Amino acid sequence: MSSTDISIHPDVHHAHDEHDHHHDQNFLEKYIFSQDHKVIAKQFLFAGIFWAFIGGFLSVIFRLQLGWPEATFTFLEPILGGWIQNGKLDPEFYLALVTMHGTIMVFFVLTAGLSGTFANFLIPLQIGARDMASGFMNMLSFWIFFLSSVIMFWSLFLETGPAGGGWTVYPPLSALPQAIKGSASGMTMWLISMALFIVSQLLAGVNYITTIINLRTKGMSMTKLPLTVWALFFTAILGLLSFPVLFSAALLLIFDRSFGTSFYLSDIYIAGEALTNTGGSPILFQHLFWFLGHPEVYIVILPAFGLVSEVIATNSRKPIFGYRAMIGSMIGIAILSFVVWAHHMFVTGMNPFLGSVFMFLTLIIAVPSAVKVFNWIATLWRGNIRFSTGMLFAIGFVSLFISGGLTGIILGNSALDIQLHDTYFVVAHFHLVMGAAAFFGMFCGVYHWFPKMFGRMLDEKLGAVHFWMTFIAVYLVFMPMHYIGIAGFPRRYYNWTGFETFNIFTDMNTFISLAAIIGFGAQFLFLFNFIYSIFKGRRATQNPWHSNTLEWTTPVLPGHGNWPGEIPTVYRWPYDYSKPGAPEDFIPQNVPFSATQSSNLPNEKDLE
Amino acid sequence: MSTSTTLEEPKTGTWDGGNEPLKASYGKLMMWFFLLSDAFTFGALLIVYGLSRHAHLPYTGKPEDFSFSTEYWPIPEKVYNAFPGLHGMDLPLAFVALMTMILILSSVTMVLAVEAGHRMDKNDVQKWLLWTILFGTTFLGCQAWEWAHFITGTDEGMILADGSRVFGANLTVNQYGPPLFADLFFFITGFHGTHVLSGVVLLVMIFINTVNGVYHKRGHYEMVEKVGLYWHFVDLVWVFVFTFFYLI
Lengths: 608, 248
Fold this sequence. Notes:
The structure holds two protein chains of two kinds.
Chain A: H1 27-32, H2 37-67, H3 77-80, E1 84-85, E2 88-89, H4 91-127, H5 135-155, H6 185-214, H7 227-258, E3 269-270, E4 273-274, H8 282-316, H9 323-336, H10 352-364, H11 366-380, H12 389-411, H13 414-420, H14 424-454, E5 456-457, H15 460-486, H16 506-536, E6 538-539
Antiparallel strand pairs in A: 1-2, 3-4, 5-6
Chain B: H1 26-55, H2 76-79, H3 94-118, H4 122-152, E1 158-159, E2 165-166, H5 179-211, H6 214-218, H7 222-247
Antiparallel strand pairs in B: 1-2
Helix pairs in contact in B: 1-5, 1-7, 3-4, 3-7, 4-5, 5-7
Family (chain B): Belongs to the cytochrome c oxidase subunit 3 family.
Subcellular location (chain B): Cell membrane
Keywords (chain B): Cell membrane, Membrane, Transmembrane, Transmembrane helix
């Protein structure tokens, strides 16, 4: 029998051995200004959960307004104070609510909370590194994000309210403080907060990319990387290339707002008075914004792709179907995401020919997306499925991604989009395909990696209840929205009772609001489960899901430096599940082929 | 013993892990990726310039008859034709050419500093870093003069429809042409100038470290190399800014 005592290599790993030495840290270094990637990941996770509840709560308030437009909300006065006038929601506050709901969910939860958590946590653990390339920059990234969060949170309490021009902050509305309350100091703070947010993303992004390139352990070739790492790699690249463009756009907007320039402004009358600004173009801002904005939706969804691929393969006890096709389709999506931005702008009066080019490129994205969906389904097909809560959310993700993706094909058509633009059809589409789906990816990740993060298990029964309530609520909220959208029901309207046409949808809107409130309520089950299990959950074993990837070779609660001894060496890809001839139905990546002679395939014999 | 007892080694190809596949340390890679990102920031700004300029009318008359007007985008040679100490002379692009030369020269001295670092020659690193700092600061000084002149304006100014004259430029009005012309000039050259200033600060920091022998003790001058990458990038960006604002 072969013996593979890798401990006789004294110099297995070269980088970051210095991390082994700081064991006597004080509380501040260990939990607050920590440079340990696992602690930073948890900090991002806690911040993300906090923001998710704020963002969800805001949506519940505006769903109350939409579901019961005639009702009085005097009971909300203790929370909202002056925003409730005679029991009625202030219309400008409604705009601020939708703006902040969008901003918080897209950036603070599904960008920072999702990839911040899982890129930090999983990249070093899954590639076999002691920590990120630069722990200091990683810490800086979180604290700049924290500062940006504080500014955004603070803006919620301004007298004129937070930003109210929509999460896309289109000028001229957002550029003119006198236009609406939401364009006053709330918008200034929005811009400052987002500028800091971009700096944080940049620091994090260069770190992720560099770590994946340079710190993979011996044997961990690019084609032995788990799909999570691949997905996070592309996410980081997308962020690195698209966020700076938003940075430029935001800086120019700051100048237009505060220093009298005219980059986005021209020929405007406001309250009967002509502004001196001339020569600028608001459409220019839209181009710059969506050059970020479109890759941003993939920044949100790619980490979910990775997490779901990993969880589905592990819990189907089958190799992921089409590993290389999965990577290839992610490359395809990443590249295409940069050349489709103008499909958000079909109604800006762009040349119809240009529209048809962007339509064509947009529809091509359906191909790699479909490849991924079929691969997930093929992985599930005849698998030995274990319905853990993480797995439930992963399957739920696939379902939502299909339902939301199909309407993407409709909206991607420039001719159809003219009818559907700015209706609830669009709201339904993107909430299913990137909102709820990315949330499901995030839940799937939290349920699956919770044992590695906290050394304890989340309660599976409570998890299943959480899943089913959330899953049903999401469909009950967004499916009806398609119908009212097709009927022409517009987005961003505070009150639609003035339109005779839309009164027939009163019941449907009430129904959607009820489903949304129930869905939001279900998240408190998760919150309880999460907090309770951190302290009182069932203790986890080292590898509770019988998974192959390297993070499960660490101790139950890995310390600073992740592996107490040598970093494991990698010999095989991460998806050797249910390999014929193997005694167990999983073979971890650090098991050499010489130890698995009974299950080696003919082409693996010479690797023994 | 049979062959099966031999210690199994993982593959050791370029991308097989446990090494630096691009033959660059993590710090250097980070600098490259940061620069890639920053290139997109500048790229966006230059696209804004291109689109804004395209949205305005060009000057179609003869160059000799050119006068400043908000109706059309000005000819760069007619705007940037002043030289410090040579008041009233028409020297199109002479000063900016000098500035550009100085910045390019600073890139040359930066290369020499990096090269001296490879030789572990502390004195040479110090010398060339000091030259780079000198040229960088001179460039910033030139830019300050250029801005001051741009803000003060020419003797004649621009005659408005009502007969009054506008001198110089700020973010809302300017004598050279449409407001956006000055907005973009201030914003983009200012953004680039901020980058040069950051570069000079970094250079001063690594100069102090070099003098204190920090890198010599560390055994390599990689930090000089990393700052060098940044410096060359800023220089390269200037070439594009120069082309957009002054040449086309």
